[in-house]
Every structure is written in C-alpha cells, then in structure tokens.
Amino acid sequence: METLTRILSIAAGGAFGAVARYLINVSVLQHFFRPFPLPTFVINVTGSFLIGFLLVVFTEKTALPENLRFAVLVGFLGAYTTFSTFELEIWDLIKENQLPTAFVYLFLSIVIGFAGVVAGVWLGRKL
C-alpha cells in the first residue's frame, strides 16, 4: 500500500509539473530571442534552482512526509525539468545550421543551471 501511495503522490506531482512546463512553453517567453529556446532555458534554470533549494529544505530544514517529498522532487520537478527537450532543441538548431546559437544555448543551460543548483542549496541552508 505504501508503494501505491508513493506512486500516486509522484503521479500527482508529475501532473502539476507537466502543466507548469506547458504553460511556460506557451507563454510570452516563446516570442523573445528567436531562435534561442527561452522557455526551455527558463524551465531548466528554475528547475535546477528549485531542486537544489527544495532538496535542502525538505531534507535538512523540515520534517515533511516522505510521499510529499517524492511528489515535489520526483513528480513535479521530474515532469517540469526534462532535458530531453533541451537536447532535441540543440539537435534542431544544429540541423538548421544555427551552430553558434546551439552552442551558446548548450553552454548557458549547463553553467547557469548548475549555478541554480548551487544557489538553491546555498539559500536553502540560509533559512
């Protein structure tokens, strides 16, 4: 029963994460900095920050039920921050001979995404 509850918690969190990702992808962000895929960039950076921050808050600062942690960290953020779209967009940019844009996008996503994890861990520990 505990496993089923955990799976349902992750599924519920995943549903919200998927909807949040979709809403950002269809937001006004998609119209800026073409052909740079800004919505996915924003999702990756904010997701990286949130996973670092919430990991610290959930494991070091609060005593949340385990299923709630799984719902948010695995479900919501797992659905919200997929890098498969990121990789596909880089592939598409390369196929369209947009090599500088592809490499800038790749570099910034990795470096600033990692900085988001570090900043989230730092802020989470400051609370």
Instruction: From the alpha carbons, calculate the radius of gyration and give it in angstroms.
Output: 16 Å
The best one-word shape is: globular
Main beta sheet: none
* Tally of contiguous helical segments: 5
Instruction: Give, in order, the helices and strands.
Output: HHHHH
Fraction in beta strands: under 5%
Task: Please explain how this structure is put together.
81% of the residues lie in helices and 0% in strands. With 127 residues, it is mainly alpha-helical. It has one domain (2-126). Helix 2 (38-61) packs antiparallel against helix 3. It starts with a helix and ends with a helix. The mean pLDDT is 93.
